[in-house]
Every structure is written in C-alpha cells, then in structure tokens.
Amino acid sequence: MLKAVLKGQEGKPPRTVLLGLSYENLDRLKKGMPIRFDSGEIGLTPGTEFLIFAGRTEQSMAADLEEMIGPHTEVRISPKLKS
User: Residue 11: which domain range?
Assistant: First the structure.
C-alpha cells in the first residue's frame, strides 16, 4: 500500500491523505483481511489508527463493524447509508 500526505499551503495542516491500494491489497480486503496502520507512519500525529476494510455493501460493512463497537464508541455514519 502506498501511503502519503499532501500538505496544504505553507504552515497549514495536511489537507489530503492518499492511500493507494495494490491489487494484492484489494485481494486481501476481499478475503476479509483489513489493513491497519498508525497515523505516525505517514508523518501525522501518532495515535490515530487507520482501518481499511471492504464489504459487499455499505450496510454489510456496518454490520461487520458491530463487534468492534463498545459502550464508549462514538459512531457517526451518514444517514444515507443506514438501513
């Protein structure tokens, strides 16, 4: 996977995070193998984890995430994706 941050104007925080997935990455995602990495790997403040995953539909992906959601998890999902 290619990871990069495009910086905004001088002195401003990054505006765009690029994640380029190889075909091998896509094959892994299709097999239910998510990709995780820490934001510090791409020069952002460490401690925020990126989790990249795939599913057949947005609704099925939301269902897959239910096991990761606990009582202190704040979830924000676009209303247009809720079933």
Answer: 2-81
